[in-house]
Amino acid sequence: IRTVITPAVDRMRKAQAKRLGLDSVKYYDESLTFTGGNADPVGGKDYMVGQATEMYGALSPETKEFFDFMTKYELFDLETRPGKHLGGYCTSLPEYKAPFIFSNFNGTSADVDVLTHEAGHAFNAYRVMRKDYPMALMNATMETCECHSMSMEFLTQDYHKYFFGAQTAKYEQGHCDDALMFIPYGCMVDEFQHLMYENENLTPDERNETWLRLEKKYRPWIDFDNLPFYSRGGGWQQQLHIYLYPLYYIDYCMAQTVAFQFWIASMHDRTDAWERYMRFVDAGGSKTFVELCHDSGIKVPYEPGCIREIGSEISQWLHKNARNH
Q1: Bridge partners of 76?
Q2: Which residues pair with 91 in a beta bridge?
Q3: 10 Å Cβ neighbour count for 32?
Q4: What is the pTM of this model?
Q5: Residue 78 and residue 74: Cα distance in Å, rounded?
Q6: Which of 67, 98, 115, 311 is the most exposed place for a label (fewest CB within 10 A)?
Q7: How many Å is the maximal CA-CA distance in the chain?
Q8: Which class for 292: exposed (0-12), middle (13-18), buried (19 or more C-beta within 10 A)?
Q9: Is residue 168 packed enough to be buried (19+ CB in 10 Å), middle (13-18) or exposed (0-12)?
């Protein structure tokens, strides 16, 4: 990742600076992908759910059945309102064999991410609850669960236009950028956690110094421009997984590499890629992560050459589809 993905992201940041007319991208510039603003969906909650219904109806018979069930029984709580808990997630109501999606729509592309990412979790839950698996074999391991959701974000690519219209290409470039940039960051979080547990007596300053060292290792392009909190290495404190879910974060990185592989496969043969994804989803927790990857024709992320292949394919896609404004 440090020799393939990190340099690829560095090139992306340089291209972003050029698009924005900057000498370099500072930390506070990173979330702005285009000078005209990032892509936003063109409608509100009801419009979005309607478009999602159209999308999943067209994607496959399996997703049509799933999403029709979700809308029939109103298995969403999507809109932000006073006093509502923040965040987004998918949970299950086993007695009803029903998933449930919770979110806080805010009018940004994150709303579409919910309708693809969390719906990927929900689709898996819907499918496995209708199998004859024992309860213990329904739920997959965490790195496997995130494959269901992250892959769905990309396998719905043909239908992103339903949400973004003329801004679809901007959304897809920004979405791909974000996914690729996440991998070095996720690995940095994981290495940081290992170092903290291996060196439990580090002082607060030493912990911050460790984080800054890892920033230079995995994200050398970052320029905090003397922002006091981040420049002293305090950025790790904003990642709640470090506090709440020890050593979980690497699962997202592994899942992202699987999602990229499903996406790459879909660009060559969409029908075959979807069939392989369905095998992955329908197995639930009945197989190990490695078995699921191999059975679906996906390389395990730490197999030799896997990251290099992904980095090459995604970099080519970004180069081919790059927008300048």
Answers
A1: 101
A2: 100
A3: 16
A4: 0.95
A5: 10
A6: 98
A7: 58
A8: buried
A9: middle
